[in-house]
Amino acid sequence: MNWRRTLESICLPVGAILAGLVLFGIFCSLVGANPFGVFGSIWKAAFGSWSTFQNTLIRAAPLMLSSLCTALPARLGLVIIGNEGALVVGGLAAVSMGLAIGTSLPPVGVQALMAIAGMVAGGIWIGAAGALRHYRAVNETISSLLLNYIAIALLNHLVGGPMRDPNSLNKPSTAPLDAVNMLTNMPGTRVHWGLLFGLIACVLAYFLIQRTTFGFAARTAGGNIRAARIAGLPVGKLTIIVCALAGACAGLAGMVEVAAVQGAANESLNVGYGYGGILVAFAARHNPLGAVLVSLLVGGILASGGILQRSHNLPDATVLVFEGLVFLVVLYSDSLYGKLPFFKEKPVDASPPAVTPKSPSPV
Amino acid sequence: MTITSPSLNVSTIAAPPELQIVNMTKRFGSLVALDNVSLNLKPGTFHALLGENGAGKSTLVKCVMGFYRADQGEILIDGNPRAIASPRDAHHYGIGMVYQHFTSVPAMTVAENLVLSRYDSSTLINWKQEMEQLNDFMNSAPFQVPLNLPIAQLAAGQKQKLEILKQLYLKSKILILDEPTSVLTPGEADEVLGLIKEQVNAGLLSVLLITHKFREVTSFTEEVTVLRKGKLAGHGSVKELAIADMAEMMMGERREIKEVAKTPYANPQPVLQFEGIQANKDNGVEAVSGVSLTVHSGEIVGIAGVSGNGQKELVEVLAGQRSPTSGTVRVNGEPYQATRAEMFKHKVFALPEEPLRNACVPHMSVAENMALRTFDRAPQAKGILLIWKAIRQTAQGLIQQFSVKTPSTETPVGNLSGGNVQRTVLARELSEDHINLLIAANPCFGLDFAAVEFIHSQIVEARNRGVAVLLVSEDLDELLALSDRIVVISSGQFVYESAIAEADFGAIGRSMAGH
User: Fold this and answer.
1) Which of A71, A298, A322, B298 has its CA 20 to 30 A from that of B276?
2) pLDDT digits (tens, 9 = 90+) for B400-441
3) Are the Cβ atoms of A227 and B405 closer than 8 angstroms?
4) What number is the ipTM of this complex?
5) B332 shares its domain with B304
6) Where does a domain end: B191, B224, B251?
7) Is residue B353 part of a domain?
8) A232 inside 8 A of chain B by CB
C-alpha cells in the first residue's frame, strides 16, 4: 500500500551510489585514468567471477557486523560512530582469550569463548558511550568517536609493549593464535565462517527490532522520547542495552578479523572496517537486512584496491576516495526523503467519493 | 539596580501617532480567530489588551505587526489607512513589538545586539562611532543596561529591559508589549512597567500591553480593551471599571453548565494522592512549588490556571515525563514512580496536551501508536515476540470505535490531521475497561466542536464508571462543565480550591490572575 515509500527507500540509495560513481569517474579522469576502464576493473575485481567475488565476501563479513554498531543505536535516535574502536577492543579481547586458553579446550570451545570475549569487550566499549549519553547527557557521537582513538592507542600500546611477540619484527603483533583455533573456511570456498556470523547477526538484529517487544520499545524511545516516557518505557535501560548490543556486533567483527584473517592482533585491525561500517549503515538506512546487501557492495569496492594499483597505476587508497565520495552522496540523499513529489503518499481525501458518472469501471 | 529618572533628551521629540484598528477579522480555516475587533490606541496612552488564552490578543497584534494578513478590516495611522505587510513596514510607521520570549543573541554583547537589531545595518560597522552613539542613547534612555556585557550574563529583568530598549533604539513610538512580565519577578515587573509609564506620561510613547494580570491593568494602564473568544468583549477607561467588571468581560457570563449526565459515585476512595510536589522547568527554574492534592474515584478534579504557572510541569511529573525535585506521589495508597509496571498495575492513563509531541511517535504507524500501552502483553505479544496480527486487529477495532479517519492501520500517525491524532490517543488511553486514574491536560485544545463534545462525554463517562480524573485545562468553561472540584494554580501553587457547586466565579478569575 505504501509502494511509493518503498520505492523511495530503494531509489534514493541506488541513485546516490550512481551519483557517487559519476563523481568518482570525474576524479579518475582528473588523475589521468579512463573512468570506464576503472569501473570495469572494479566490477571485475569485485563481482566478475566466483573467485574474485569470494574476496568481496571476505571483506563483506566484518562490514555487516560493524555496520550494526551504527544501525542498531540509530533506531533509538542515537548516532554512534565508535565501530572502529569496538572492533579493535573486540579483536584484542578475542586474542587475549585465545592465547590464554591455548589448546586446553577443543577448538570450537576456544572459538566460542573468543567470540564471547570480543562481544563483551565491544559491548562494554559502546555501552559506555550509551551510559555517558543517558546519565551525563554526553553527545554519543563525539564520545564514541573519541573512544575510537583510545581503542587504537590501546592496541598500539599493547602490541608494542606488554603483549608484543618478540618474533614480530617489522610489524609489532601479539603472539599468533594456535593454528587449530583459527576459524576455518566454509567448505569449498576461500570464505571463512565469519560471513555466516555476519548474516546471522543481521537477520537477528532485523528480527529484534521489527518483531520483538524490545525492538518496539526501542523504536518508540527513538521516535519520541516523551511518548516513551508517558508509556512508562525505561528509556535509560534501553539506551544502554542497545548500545551494548551494537558494540557486541562490532566486537564480534574484531574477533572474526583476528581469528579468521590476521591470526594475531596488530595494526591491521584498524584498516577501515569500522568506518566502512558507518557508511554501510547509513546507505542501508539502518535496516539490518539492507546492510547485508550494502556490505557486499562496499566489500567489493574495498576488494578492488589492488587491481587499481596494478592495471591503472592508481594508488590503492583510490578506493577510499570512492568510498568517501559515496558516503557523502549517501548522506546527502538522506536529506531528500519526503522532498521529492513523486514519492509522496497521496493525501487522504476525507470527503466521501462523489458519484463519478464518467467512471468506466462500475465499482 | 539603580533607577534613573527619565530625561526628555530623546533625539526626536515627536508625539507618537494614533493607531486605530477598525473591524478586523482573521480566520484560520474554519476557525474565526478575530471577529470584527476594533481598538483605538490614542497618542501617549498606556492601553491594556486583556483576555484569556486563545482570546485573539496575539492574533490581533500579529495582524498589526504584519505577521498575518487580516481577512477584513484596516489599520489607520493618524487617520490614514496603511497597509502593513511585514514587521519592517510596521517599523516604518513607528510600531515595534516586544515579544514574550527574548530575541537577543546570548553570546553577543548588549551593544552588538542593539546594532544587530537595526533594519538599515551597513556592511561595515564603525564601532567607535557606534559606541559613541550607543552611549548617548543609553544615557538618555529610561533605564540602562551595561553595553559591554554579553546577553548570557544578564538577569531576566535586564534582558526584558534590553528588549524594550531595542524598540526605543529603533525609535519606535508605539510599543506593543506581549506579556512582558511573564518572565519577571513582581518587583522587576513593577520597575520596568513603571519606567515605561513615565515615558508614556511624558508623551513620548504609546503602549499596548497584552496581559491577563489585573494588577498590571489597574496600576499602570489608562484604557483597557477586552477580548473573549475572538470578539470584542468590552472597552473602557480603567478608572471607571472595577476588577469584577473586567473579570466578567474576560471570562464571560457564567454559562449554564451543560448537563453531561453525571451520576454520583457510590464509594469514593482516594486514588491519586500527591504531596509537596516540587519540579523545575527545563531551564532549572522552579515551576511547581510544593503542591498537594487527593483525587478520589468517580471524581473529576479540575486544575485551572493561566498557562505557564506550573501546570504543564505538574502534569509531566504525574505522567512520568519529568522527575520531581521533591515530594511524593501515591496511587491507590502505594508509592508511584510512573514506571511501566506501576502504570499497568494501577491502570493509569494520560491524555497529554499536544498529543503528537507528547504521546505519539509520528513516523510509526497508527496501529503501532495504538499499541503503545499494550504491545508487551498478550494477546499482542507472546513472550518477547510481537503478534502483528493482534496489534492490527486491535487497531482496526479502535479505528472503528473512535472513528479515526486514516487510510490504513499502517499509515504513519504523523500523516493524520490533528483531530485524528487526538482520537488515536483517546482510543489508546480510554478503551481499556478498567481505567483507575486518568490524567488529562488540555485534551480539547485546538479541536472542533464535535470533537470537543466527544472527548467531554468520554471523560464524564469514565468518571461515572469510577475513574479518578485529574483535568488540567486553560479553558474555564470546560473545567466548570466537567469538574466536581476545582483548584486554581498560580505561580506553582494551589491558591484556590472549592467544590464546583460552591465555586465563586469571581474568586476563580482573581486567583488565576494572581490577584
Assistant:
1) B298
2) 988 888 888 998 998 887 778 888 998 999 888 788 999 999
3) no
4) 0.81
5) yes
6) B251
7) no
8) yes
